[in-house]
Design a protein that fits this description.
Helix content: 25-40%
Largest sheet: 7 strands, mixed
Number of helices: 8
Order of helices and strands: EHEEEEHEHEHHHEEEEEHHEEEE
Strand content: 25-35%
Strand order of the largest sheet: 6-1-7-14-11-16-8
Distance between the termini: 29 Å
Shape: globular
Structural class: alpha+beta
Length: 260
């Protein structure tokens, strides 16, 4: 049963609500090149019930009183930046070789400057870490890899902070600048709450212990359409990406900071 936890802040339109779905828990991968011990969401996603919506969503007024890492936001790139991306065909990239050619153009340099100014306007600090543009195959049920193996649901550790400090770790913005939809999977329980049940400081062990002990705890899935992005505390929650069902290359732009 879904518990209170991390909330999603999105507009109240029917399109935003329908972009969120929920499943019936996690399982061991049946196929694919996964790391030993990896766990993934069951492919049993459905629409949220009214009761689940009250747990999942928050509004702007309530969000104002919450820590920036207690919220996932769905945002959209401004139209002028969308047009610039289309004009240099950044959303049509098929390879890193094409990207190397594109970044030499003057229009790309203008876009990069404007894009960093835009994400900077959403940061609580001047320190922004640009992780750049990634190009990956489409139609992957999960996306995060390590040494050519999928890792499954996980918690990031870029800042390498202890669990007790992770509420204040950097979060990330990840924009979908490709042509197909992609998804963010996440479990809405913050890692500090997981540790009340599994009191240790090894993040990988915490993830595995929780998922193995709670295989029926639901995973939430957010659809991120082209030119949309998410702000999410990926060092504070169990999560992964997905491009399931998309035949396009997965083209993303990612930055880390303290975004709100």
């Amino acid at each position: 049963m879904l518990k209170e936890g991390i909330r999603i802040l999105a507009d109240s339109s029917e399109n935003s609500v329908s972009a969120i779905s929920i499943n019936t828990g996690t399982e061991i991968p049946r196929n694919g090149n996964y790391m030993q011990g990896a766990l993934i969401p069951k492919n049993t996603f459905r629409s949220l019930s009214d009761a689940e919506k009250t747990i999942v969503f928050t509004n702007q007024n309530n969000a104002a009183g919450m820590n920036y890492n207690e919220i996932i936001k769905i945002i959209q790139l401004p139209e002028n930046l969308q047009n610039m991306i289309r004009s240099i065909h950044l959303n049509s990239l098929e390879s890193y070789e094409q990207l190397e050619d594109t970044v030499t153009h003057e229009d790309f340099k203008i876009l990069a400057k404007d894009l960093m100014e835009y994400v900077g306007s959403k940061s609580l600090t001047p320190e922004i870490y640009n992780l750049g543009i990634q190009i990956e195959p489409g139609n992957e049920y999960t996306t995060t890899k390590q040494s050519d193996e999928y890792v499954g649901l996980h918690i990031d550790s870029w800042d390498r902070q202890p669990v007790s400090e992770r509420k204040n770790s950097r979060n990330r913005i990840c924009f979908n600048i490709g042509k197909g939809s992609r998804y963010l999977y996440f479990i809405n329980i913050p890692v500090t709450d997981l540790c009340s049940e599994f009191p240790e400081d090894n993040i990988d062990h915490i993830v595995t212990d929780f998922l193995m002990s709670n295989p029926d705890y639901p995973v939430l899935r957010i659809q991120i359409k082209p030119f949309e992005g998410y702000i999410a505390p990926t060092e504070y929650i169990i999560h992964d990406g997905s491009t399931a069902g998309s035949n396009f290359k997965d083209v993303t732009f990612t930055v880390r900071s303290n975004f709100y």
